[in-house]
Amino acid sequence: MGILRNDTRELVNSIRISKDRLESKSEILKNIEPPDDWNEPFRKCLSYYLLKKERMERLIYPCCAVPIYKAISRQEAFTYHALKMLHCLSAEQLNKLLSFDEKGKDESQAAIAIIHSKIELYRMLFWKSADLNEAFDIMVVSAARAYPGYSFDEYLN
Questions:
Q1: Is the pTM of this model over 0.85?
Q2: Sign of CA pseudo-dihedral 45, 49, 50, 52
Q3: In the chain, where do the E strands start and end?
């Protein structure tokens, strides 16, 4: 059984439960400590971006008709708030945002979406220092090694 983070849908850990000893979900979750970075500002920025990106994709490809002016105003508001959150991060938080986490690596679409969201957030930065460029390159190279089926070459500086 896998435990996913609610904010970014990353795999936190997997638990093996035998059939003869099934525990309730609440008992299992009580024994799991929250991730170290659950309340970090870069996590909030990343989760906000992922959540709003999913909502905007539903507006772009709606199941019912949506007025175009409503979709455009929502996209503008989303972009404004994402930029504001991103540019309020410190240099340390930006480096944490651009780090590649090996322990949460899995082959799901959520993991690939997180990497692409980090790349898009990096592209939204107005000022990029040499340290951030280096952290971004390391993240892209690590992602390319971890997911050989995907091509991340176009993102390298």
A1: no
A2: positive
A3: 2-4, 11-14
